[in-house]
Structures are given as structure tokens and as C-alpha cells.
Amino acid sequence: MTKKYIYSNLTIKNRSFFKRLSHNKRFKKALNLIELSDNFSLLDFGTGDGYFLKLLKEKVNAKITGYEPVTDMFDQLETNISNEDFLLINNLNQTKENFDVIYCLEVLEHFSKENQSKLLKQIKEKLKEKGQIVVSVPIEVGVASFVKNLIRLSIKQTEKDTNRKNIFKALFLNQ
Predict the structure, then answer these.
(1) Which of 22, 49, 154, 169 is the most exposed place for a label (fewest CB within 10 A)?
(2) What is the residue extent of each domain of the chain?
(3) Would you give per-residue pLDDT tens digits along the chain (175 residues)?
(4) Alpha carbon distances (Å) from 2 to 5, 6, 115, 136, 157
(5) What is each CA distance from 127 to 63, 98, 133, 148, in whole angstroms?
């Protein structure tokens, strides 16, 4: 029997202090990039388990929507977010609304360039005319990548392509 993939175990509930710290830090940084207002409509595009939705709700009393298209992740989202403070959707067509702010945090790196273009187009179509987008992707080149990969090796939480060759290629920006 395979162990069920629980997203929060890789991020905010990770056994590694460094992983917990880095994931929490990126969420807090994203929260502070835009001056949010209670009359805004917000979309978390690729919300995962909904942790960021909860942080948004603590900061602002706005209309918040969580979009998670991956079925297994959407099931985790519905388990984690059990109140009526959020609209949870697994298909963008479930809402006709356009949003003042769209967050897309640590999502795009999981897709090919072609699919990234499609996702960015979907985001743009859901954004109000004067809306704002916050996008984050992990830094996987240079010294930051080298340190990240050393930590991954030391805590035995490597990615599928973590090896000495790729670590040094990323360190020297040669990908």
C-alpha cells in the first residue's frame, strides 16, 4: 500500500526546520507584497491544501477563492478548509468572477513552458482590468540552489533529479 501524498508534510508541516521556515517565509512575503482591502476579491491559483487561504483570511476580510485543479489536492483542500469563508473550486469555469488580486505561488515550475503559457493566459483572463498578480517560483540556480540541495541531501528529502551533476550545473547556472 502506498503512503498518501500529503502536501503540507512537504511544506509547512515538514519535519525539517529549514523547509518549514522557507515555506512559511514565502507565504508571509507574498502576503505583504500588495496592500489588500476588504472589498477585494482574491484568487489563490493552485492553492494546494489551502494554508495560504487561511493566512489571507487572517489578514483581510475579502472575498477569497481557492482554485485547485488536481483532484487529490482538491480533496485535501476540502478536508482542510471546512468552513464557508472561502469559495473552493477545481475548475475555473465554476466562477464567472474576475479578481482584484491573483496569487500563484510555487505552481508554475511544475509545468512545461507550453503549459505555463496556458496557465498565465488563464490567470490573465480571470484578472480585473487594474488587478494585480503575485507569482513565485523556487530559486533553483546559483548559490541558493546549492544550499537548498545540500539541505535536501542532509535531511534525505531529495527531488527526483537531485544528483551531484545537477547540483553543480545549477550552482554555475548551466542548465
Answers:
(1) 154
(2) 7-136, 142-171
(3) 344 556 655 565 556 666 666 667 888 888 999 999 999 999 999 888 888 999 999 999 999 999 998 888 888 888 888 767 899 999 988 999 999 999 988 887 777 888 888 888 999 999 999 999 998 877 666 777 777 777 777 777 666 777 778 777 777 765 4
(4) 9, 12, 29, 31, 17
(5) 14, 5, 8, 33
